[in-house]
Design brief:
The structure is a single chain. This protein has 4 helices and 9 strands; from the N terminus they run ββββαβββααββα. With 165 residues, it is α+β, with helices and mostly antiparallel strands. The longest helix has 10 residues.
């Protein structure tokens, strides 16, 4: 998939995984307490997810731009909340994730197909700050669920606005 002139590919900043769900299946009950683990790299296989993650057959993307906008517009009580609270696998910069639904794209030479928009759940107000769910729904910025089409290794750049500040 050749890059178009003037096209800047998305940058992979951070990689996360969580071995079990904290929110899915917890409706009407307290959230789970399963930690999110940050990885410097991960190997993906076609048709699989991040090894050891609760989603075995797909990966999820979240935009750094959304996280930064939330930080600027909704002050989390008790201090900063990192992008890991959204429980998506890959934090990226420079991509319109919604435009990738139904399309093939590449990250670091690995091929993906955007499957669906990740609808945020009501737990986001607890995980980040009150008002987060409404903002994510208004902005349609919950992330992207994607299928891995070709395997290989992804490496995190590790350069988020948080680490540059």
């Amino acid at each position: 998939m050749p890059e178009r002139p003037g096209f800047h590919p998305m940058e992979l900043l951070r990689i996360f995984r969580s071995k079990a769900h904290n929110y899915f299946g917890h409706y009407g009950k307290p959230a789970g307490t399963n930690p999110v683990e940050e990885l410097s790299e991960t190997s993906l296989a076609a048709g699989g997810g991040v090894p050891g993650d609760r989603f075995k057959q797909q990966v999820t993307f979240f935009a750094e731009e959304t996280w930064l906008r939330l930080r600027a517009e909704i002050a989390p009580p008790g201090g900063e909340r990192g992008p890991d609270v959204f429980r998506r696998n890959l934090l990226v910069r420079g991509a319109d994730l919604n435009a990738l639904v139904g399309r093939e794209f590449q990250v670091q030479g690995l091929r993906f197909r955007g499957v669906e928009y990740c609808k945020p759940c009501f737990w986001m107000d607890q995980a980040f700050a009150p008002g987060t769910l409404d903002a994510l729904n208004r902005w349609r910025a919950g992330g992207l669920r994607a299928e891995v089409l070709s395997g290989g290794t992804l490496r995190a750049a590790g350069q988020t606005a948080e680490s540059r500040a």
